[in-house]
Amino acid sequence: MFSFYDVVSYMISFNALFTRLAKGTFFGFIICMPLFTVAQADSRIEQRLGAEKINKKITQPTEYLGYPLGEWHLRHDQINHYLQLLASQSSRVSLDSAGYSYEKRQQLSAVITSDDNQQRLAEILEQRSQVKYGVKQQGPLQQSPLIIWLAYSIHGDEASGAHAAVALSHYLAASDEDWVKELLDNTVILLTPTQNPDGFDRFANWANSNRGQVIITDPNHREHNQDWPGGRFNHHFADLNRDWLFLRHPASQGRVAFFHKWQPHYVGDFHEMWQDQTYFFQPGVADRVNPLTNPANQMLSNELAAYHRKALDEVKQPYFSGQMFDDFFYGKGSTYPDINGAVGILFEQASSRGQAQESPNGVVTLQNSIDNQFSTSLSSLQGAHALRKKLMTYQSDFFARNSKRTRDGKQTGRLIKAHGGNAHITELATILQQHQISFKYLNRELEDDDILFKPSNSLFIPQSQPQHDLLQALFDKRTEFKDETFYDISTWNFESALGLSISENAKPNPKYLTNNTPYVAATEQLDNASNVAFIIDWQQAAAAPMLQQLLSQGVQVKYAKKPFSLPDRSSNAKKSAVIDFTAGSLQIPLRQPNYKGNIALLVSQLATQYQVDVTAASSSHTLAGMDLGSDEFSVINPIKPLLLTGIDTNASETGQMWYYLDQTLAAPVTMVDSNRLAGIDLSGYSHIFMADGPYHLISDASARKLGKFVMDGGTIVAQKRALVWLNKRNILKSQPKTRLELNKLFSTSGMSYADKSKLNARQSIGGAIVALTLDETHPINFGLPNPLQVMKNREISFNLTSTPFIVAADYTNEPLMSGYLAKEYQRAFANTPAMIVEPKGKGHVVALTDDFLFRNIWLGSEKVYANALYFIQK
User: Fold this and answer.
1) What is the mean pLDDT of residues 161-182?
2) Residue 573: what pLDDT?
């Protein structure tokens, strides 16, 4: 007997056959019968593109592809080629680029506007560049057009938006309807079909490879269940829709540069969600809007919503607003505009994750999804155009308000020092520049709030500047919230992320400030014949990647187990001046056992490349601490790490580890899916990294291999749920507490059914910043600021009684620094272990209850992984 879904699948496939017959692809009989069609709503696009007022000389998507749009999933190169074709055929269309992805796919956007506006784009862009400085747009709307940016598919497996963008680009290029011509006279429309080219192609290839002639709607079908890591993520398994503030990835950097270049008034951010939902558009949950967002922004969101309701009501598409999604975290495509003078709107379409998939609301099809995205794209254009005066006024007022702050002449702001030295202050400066936040470097030392600020590790950010609101958002701290539910993290304070010390209301003398960094890496005396060794302070963040380069070239390097002091021989040093070096500092002996090249030249070149200060020692005798020839300096062995990957690991955290090892350290890392461990000889690896994940695919035999790996001298670095697995396999003796146990902290006495969602919110740790107290004598903590602030985003901890081994770090007595963390958790975590280094045989297990790399922006704590690599060795 056939099930209902078998019948549906059969009828879908029959319709595909019917389409081929109608095209003349097949010869034979045509049987007339009622059809269930995947493309039930094709008429929404087809009617638009086939209307009489369409320029037939402009190639339609179907003509370009040779098949109906949506019959197969498009690749990024097909979309780029089609945009290039439109630009060659239509004077309304030009192209702009936001750079390239990791895999060197170009990120093209169509710039669509009237012929006249196309001729004066340079003038329009010059106007846009002045908006932040309170310069109001002059003249009629035709001279100062509204800028609308519609951006799609930042998650690569949310493909319907990109397909809709292809159809929309043709429609705007070819339509001679009166309303379209008026729209293009008054607006410049930016269409970005794919914001994640690498993930988009990964998904397209998967979906197309697993699609048969018969369309299968069963959610269990392989087509709807991508192989790890899936198309959502970019090359390094990062969610690019969480990277607008942090800018760790080239696609994000190009996209934010594109945003500031055009400074749009309206941004439409098109996504897909779970197939069991219908269609969502903002406004989101009212009580979960970030308090820094201007209320006028939400008023405009509500006004725009009327146009989306009308569009979807006309086609009988159910939808919802005001639920589930929020406007809190500014690192997303719909919220970054809100803190930058624009109005961002999120759209979420139920996903087919292939051609068609069952859901409680009926079969979700790719074709219908494309049509819905097309409809709300049109409603975005119509709504923004109708409200253009309000949108323009909102943006002008937004920046004029900030501009007024700049006219008081005061230079009050944040003096910032990076614990990681020049590397981290350079990272901060780069991020600020990309966000167009003004800052100055220091050209001399100064002290403020008992903090010594140096040109090598400090800068000054004035409070009064056009990007004032975004600046506030980057350094925002709060622990009280109107609603305790968060769609993403509840905090992202850059002070904590980058390991900064800040004087909040500093007023430095202007003569202490400069626009260009005066810092030059200290490399004096390196070629002096009397030298016996070179010393590098490990607190410098770039010391780790420089160390890796030295090891990769066969240079012997040692690390100090304890602090020591040397005389300062630099030319500007006072007589008898001393340089104090912390534990972990590196010694490069000039008598090298294996390296035969010019060691002074190599070190000098690398120091300049990484901007690392290097001190030359003329004697093995130190002023304080152990001498350079002491056994308290240990040789660092070359590393060969292995990173476990695959479906039972958290793709985002695995990607963060890969990014750090590959992009930051430039270390060779072997990635192996966990289910392949049985066939891997582990004896040649120095470290095994395990990100968060259940690890249910690792066999008992492989677990024994991992245990033997540690016993023989290897190091496992594991975090979060990986600790649970290691404990169950007797590789880690310390016992973690998971959410199941921690939920017992919360009383449910007298709780009503309606209180359940609030309880779930309180029990969730979406992302809060907590402080750790470090054992500074432990090598895993060398070079780190103490206390150390990390992002906690999973419910896991250790019991004090279950950790008989060395506790390297505890949560502080009052751990919450910023964000939301339930009082029950704050009490439970206080003074309990957060990091344990457990010896086992000749090796160690480094156990972390948190992700010290969070989204690769947590530069203040990432050195934990370098310390594990170079200092926790056999």
Assistant:
1) 97
2) 77
Residue 495: pLDDT over 90: yes
Give the helix/strand (H/E) hosting 110.
strand 106-112
Per-residue DSSP letter, 28: S
ω into 815 cis (within 30 of 0):
no
Report the C-alpha gap between 664 and 642 in whole angstroms: 16
**Integer Cα distance of 366 and 216 in angstroms:** 12
What is the C-alpha separation between 327 and 346, in angstroms, rounded? 9
Within 10 angstroms of residue 674's Cβ, the number of other Cβ atoms is: 23
CB 149 within 8 A of CB 122: no
Cβ atoms of 718 and 703 closer than 8 Å: no
Dmax over Cα atoms in the chain, in whole Å?
Answer: 101
Q: Which residues, 6+ apart, have CB-to-CB distance to 551 below 8 Å? A: 557, 636, 638, 639
**Whole-number Å distance between alpha carbons of 125 and 76:** 27
Counting beta carbons within 10 angstroms of the beta carbon of residue 4, is it exposed (0 to 12), middle (13 to 18) or buried (19 or more)?
A: exposed
Mean pLDDT of 652-681: 97
The continuous run of DSSP H or E covering 651 comes out as helix 651-659
pLDDT tens digits, one per residue of 217-256: 999 999 999 999 999 999 999 999 999 999 999 999 999 9
Cα R_g (the chain), whole angstroms: 29
292 CB-near residues (< 8 Å, 6+ apart): 339, 469, 472, 473, 476
Instruction: Write the single-letter amino acid at 470.
Output: L
Q: Which pairs with CB-CB distance under 8 Å and at least 24 residues apart come from 515-519?
A: 515/440, 515/441, 516/441, 517/426, 517/429, 517/441, 517/455, 518/441, 518/442, 518/443, 518/455, 519/422, 519/441, 519/455, 519/456, 519/611
pLDDT for 38:
42
160-174 helix and 76-89 helix, angle to the nearest 10 degrees = 10
pLDDT in tens, 347-357: 999 999 999 99
List of residues 6+ apart from 83 with CB closer than 8 A: 93, 95, 108, 109, 110, 169, 193
φ, ψ of residue 840 in degrees (nearest 5):
-150, 110
Average pLDDT of the chain, as a whole number? 92
pLDDT at res. 409 = 53
- Which three-class secondary structure state does DSSP give residue 689? strand
Cα–Cα distance between 833 and 812 in angstroms, integer? 9
Distance CA 861, CA 28 (A): 68
Pinpoint the alpha helices (H) of 484-566. Answer: 494-497, 543-552
Q: In what side-by-side order are the strands of the sheet with 93-100?
A: 93-100, 106-112, 187-192, 146-152, 266-273, 343-350, 279-281
Mean pLDDT lowest for which of 7-21, 565-579, 638-652, 802-816?
7-21
CA nearest to 339, candidates 422, 437, 209: 437
- Are 636 and 831 spatial neighbours (Cβ–Cβ below 8 Å)? no
Which residues have C-beta within 8 Å of that of residue 766, sequence separation ≥ 6? 486, 487, 488, 489, 490, 793, 820
Instruction: Please report, to the nearest 10 degrees, the dihedral formed by the alpha carbons of residues 378, 382, 383, 388 taken in order.
Output: 130
Q: Which two tokens stand for residue 318?
A: 């159910």
Residue 852 corresponds to which amino acid? Answer: F
Tokens found for residue 51:
């209307």
